[in-house]
Amino acid sequence: MDSTLPAVAEELLKEIKKAFQETSHGTDTFSFRLKFIFGPSAVPALDLVDQRSVTRVMSPSGRTAYQVLGSSGKLYTCYSSCHFCTCPAFGFTVLQKSESLLCKHILAVYLSQAMGACQELTVSEEQLTSILLAEEEDEG
């Protein structure tokens, strides 16, 4: 996980990862704490994980990004290394208004990592560059 999250959030994600490694059980045990720490992003993020909407995109050089198919059908790129998502909710709710720690997409990335539920996709360096540049073009 990334050190930009508060310690309590980091600890909860570590507990979820440990529980899934040991027993592969659901998040019911953690749902109250997830809702308490992450607020309204928790349930939609769990839905995204259940729908297997998170894909880890890797290139041969080791560069990694995550793509999350949002509930609207739009594909968002997330960067767990710097705690960032390209969705409008991240920009507004997290960065501008500071109302939430994360959007549902980046939380889904962290949860899918903890639960071992990420899909994997290996692409060429050029393909990964195109994915990253496509996001910039959408914003500009």
Could you describe the 3D structure shown?
This protein is an alpha+beta fold. It contains six helices and five strands; from the N terminus they run H-H-H-E-E-E-E-H-H-E-H. It has helices at residues 7-23, 31-38, 42-50, 88-96, 104-115, 125-139, and strands at 54-58, 64-69, 75-79, 84-85, 119-122. The chain is globular, with a radius of gyration of 15 Å. Residues 76-114 form the SWIM-type domain. This is ZSWM7 protein. Keywords: Metal-binding, Zinc, Zinc-finger. It comes from Trogon melanurus.
A few lines on this structure:
With 140 residues, the chain is α+β, with helices and mostly antiparallel strands. It is 50% helix and 16% strand.
User: First CA to last CA: what distance?
Assistant: 30 Å
Would you report the number of β strands? Answer: 5
- Unreliable spans are none
Quaternary state of the chains: single chain
Provide the succession of SSEs: HHHEEEEHHEH
Beta-strand share of residues? 15-25%
What is the arithmetic mean of pLDDT? 86
Structural class: alpha+beta
The figure for the number of domains is: 1
Q: Going across the major beta sheet, what is the strand order? A: 4-3-2-1-5
Keywords: Metal-binding, Zinc, Zinc-finger
Organism: Trogon melanurus (Black-tailed trogon)
InterPro entries: Znf_SWIM
GO biological process, one term: double-strand break repair via homologous recombination
Question: How are the secondary structure elements laid out?
Answer:
Elements: H1 7-23, H2 31-38, H3 42-50, E1 54-58, E2 64-69, E3 75-79, E4 84-85, H4 88-96, H5 104-115, E5 119-122, H6 125-139
Parallel strand pairs: 1-5
Antiparallel strand pairs: 1-2, 2-3, 3-4
Helix pairs in contact: 1-5, 3-5
